[in-house]
Design brief:
The chain has about 450 residues and is mainly alpha-helical. The protein is about 70% helix and about 5% strand. It has 18 helices and three strands. Strands 2-1-3 form a three-stranded antiparallel β-sheet, with helices on one face. Strand 1 and strand 2 form a beta hairpin. The protein starts with a strand and ends with a helix.
Length: about 450
């Protein structure tokens, strides 16, 4: 039976209705809609979606795994914004961009969106049916643009938001590449020395049968452990990652790990400021696009990526629903609760002093007074979105400065570590040799 997409006016309330109805003919569909108390203004039969004979795959689609990369979605959003500014119809714009894409998730999703729009759906409705490509933030901003009749403005704003988010993400990732590569190379070199070189010296020392200094004995013990258990070098990081994943399957465990990331020395500030920058920009973008505050907070909660901030935005949303302003609950619920799993991580990573450090730091607020005061001023002046943008810009700069500082700090620390390790090996190997040469002479 055909499906008809219709627009109508509710005779009782005067509200505009958009829905679908199944009927044998268009006349029968109109009769059914009138019987529901609606006045039909537009009705259209949805086109049947063709599927390929093999495997049920739709024409033009390719096999795809996973979601869409952020940089690809950002580029698509900017291109769609430009086409809409030029005045092209949305369906034609989407088909042009779909043809430009290489095979993958984004191309498949765009083709699905085109089919949905041809069947009578709006752009936001069509995009919401492809959640692996377009998340709630994206779909709600598109919906707000459609409702306000300013889709091209919303697309431009969304493109700018995504470009800044991607730029910040690239900056943080780029700062981590150098230390990660250096550490991996250092581990490889030290493992080779322990497995191949130190055992050769051990044979020489055994042949002479002299007593070895404590440093040399320690080095030989480390070498023996490395030779016997070399497979643990790649296995330990994998086991650690799997353990963290298992702990995060439990909400309380994930909450503890997220708290540990926010409070850990040096890198905790970077994580916290990065989340605050992204969250305030997301919330400001949604509010400036006309999304209601409660819906905007729920979307921001889902995109924060940290359970502490998810809890904060949920509590703030509940307080606003009860009639409070946003600034007060934002400050009240930004103090983390005590978490046993978080204290356990502190104890493991910082033996001896970890529990004490956690007890002294866990009550520190994750939202600075600057954010609360700016939000309060924004509420009073009616420019909350503008204030949130300014907060995000401030934290963007702080993240950039902190990332640069950490990168500059990591270089000398890595050099000191490598120099110390190599120096220890050289001294430990040559002390017995010097003693043997002295004895022989």
């Amino acid at each position: 039976m055909p499906t008809y997409q219709f627009e109508a006016i509710d005779a009782a309330t005067g509200k505009e209705i958009r829905d679908t109805v199944d009927a044998a003919t268009e006349l029968e569909a109109q009769a059914t809609i009138r019987s529901m108390g609606y006045m039909v203004t537009k009705i259209k039969a949805r086109k049947a979606k063709a599927t390929a004979a093999a495997g049920g795959r739709k024409p033009g689609r390719s096999f795809a795994i996973g979601g869409v990369k952020g940089k690809h979605l950002t580029l698509f959003t900017r291109q769609l914004s430009i086409l809409q500014d030029a005045g092209l119809p949305i369906l034609r714009s989407l088909k042009i961009l779909a043809n430009m894409q290489e095979g993958g998730r984004l191309k498949n999703s765009l083709l699905d969106v085109c089919d949905e729009i041809e069947g009578g759906s709006t752009l936001s409705e069509a995009m919401s049916k492809s959640p692996k490509a377009f998340d709630r933030l994206y779909c709600n901003m598109i919906r707000a643009g459609e409702a306000g009749g300013a889709l091209e403005v919303i697309l431009r704003r969304l493109a700018e938001f995504m470009e800044r988010s991607e730029a910040l993400k690239r900056k943080v990732k780029g700062a981590l590449v150098y230390p990660v590569v250096v550490v991996m190379v250092a581990v490889g070199i030290l493992a080779y020395i322990m497995i191949s070189i130190v055992p050769q010296f051990k044979k020489i020392f055994d042949d002479f049968g002299s007593e070895l200094p404590p440093m040399t004995q320690t080095l030989i013990t480390i070498s023996n452990l490395t030779v016997n258990y070399w497979y643990l070098i790649p296995l330990l990081p994998v086991a650690f990652s799997l353990t963290i994943r298992a702990i995060k399957l439990i909400p309380y465990g994930r909450f503890g790990w997220d708290l540990f990331l926010l409070k850990m020395p040096i890198f905790g500030q970077l994580v916290e400021k990065n989340i605050l920058s992204r969250s305030t920009r997301t919330l400001g973008t949604l509010l400036s696009s006309g999304v209601p505050i409660l819906e905007a907070l729920n979307i921001t909660k889902e995109t924060s990526g940290n359970m502490m901030f998810e809890r904060l935005f949920q509590k703030t949303s509940d307080a606003i629903r009860d009639g409070e302003a946003i600034a007060k609950p934002l400050k009240s619920y930004s103090i983390p609760p005590f978490n046993v799993v978080s204290m356990l991580f502190w104890t493991v990573f910082f033996p001896g002093v970890g529990a004490l450090l956690y007890l002294t730091k866990y009550k520190k607020s994750v939202v600075d007074d600057l954010v609360v005061n700016m939000v309060d001023v924004g509420e009073e002046s009616g420019e909350l979105d503008t204030m949130l943008y300014k907060v995000s810009d401030t934290y963007d700069e702080e993240v950039a400065v902190l990332t640069e500082s950490l990168t500059s700090l990591m270089e000398p620390l890595l050099i000191i570590f490598l120099g110390g390790a190599v120096g220890f090996i050289v001294i430990a190997l040559f002390m017995p040799l010097i003693k043997l040469i002295t004895d022989l002479s």
